[in-house]
Amino acid sequence: MQKVEHIGIAVKNMPKAVALYTKLLGVDPYKTETVESEQVKTVFFQVGETKIELLEATHPDSVIAKYIEKKGEGMHHIAYEVTDIQAEMERMKGEGFVLLNEQPKRGADNKLVCFLHPKSAGGVLIELCQEIR
């Protein structure tokens, strides 16, 4: 793992959350993207090397909608940058972590992603992400 790539935050109302984080961070978002396969709209902010990803459900049955229903708005995941996602997934499996997807999938911000189940990672949803080259 290279570094924390971003922190994902689940939100109910994207315009309201964007206004809040614009004031909080003192910068405008640099990217908005809908990931149809995950039924989520994302908005990214960056301050220095730190990225914040806001996540809003685009469908009531999406993972984000279910997360907010169960836990409310707030931190959803921590993403770590990796150079070789396949190798890192194998390493994680070998260390006893439970992968939520067996193959990397296309995520937001031009990344391949894989998630580790929170029950195998101390209660935290971990995302591995690799830049698509």
Automatic annotation (TrEMBL):
<dbReference type="GO" id="GO:0046872">
    <property type="term" value="F:metal ion binding"/>
</dbReference>
<dbReference type="GO" id="GO:0004493">
    <property type="term" value="F:methylmalonyl-CoA epimerase activity"/>
</dbReference>
<feature type="domain" description="VOC">
    <location>
        <begin position="3"/>
        <end position="131"/>
    </location>
</feature>
<comment type="similarity">
    <text>Belongs to the methylmalonyl-CoA epimerase family.</text>
</comment>
<dbReference type="Pfam" id="PF13669">
    <property type="entry name" value="Glyoxalase_4"/>
</dbReference>
<dbReference type="InterPro" id="IPR051785">
    <property type="entry name" value="MMCE/EMCE_epimerase"/>
</dbReference>
<dbReference type="InterPro" id="IPR037523">
    <property type="entry name" value="VOC_core"/>
</dbReference>
<dbReference type="InterPro" id="IPR029068">
    <property type="entry name" value="Glyas_Bleomycin-R_OHBP_Dase"/>
</dbReference>
<keyword id="KW-0413">Isomerase</keyword>
<keyword id="KW-0479">Metal-binding</keyword>
<protein>
    <submittedName>
        <fullName>Methylmalonyl-CoA epimerase</fullName>
        <ecNumber>5.1.99.1</ecNumber>
    </submittedName>
</protein>
<dbReference type="InterPro" id="IPR017515">
    <property type="entry name" value="MeMalonyl-CoA_epimerase"/>
</dbReference>
<dbReference type="GO" id="GO:0046491">
    <property type="term" value="P:L-methylmalonyl-CoA metabolic process"/>
</dbReference>
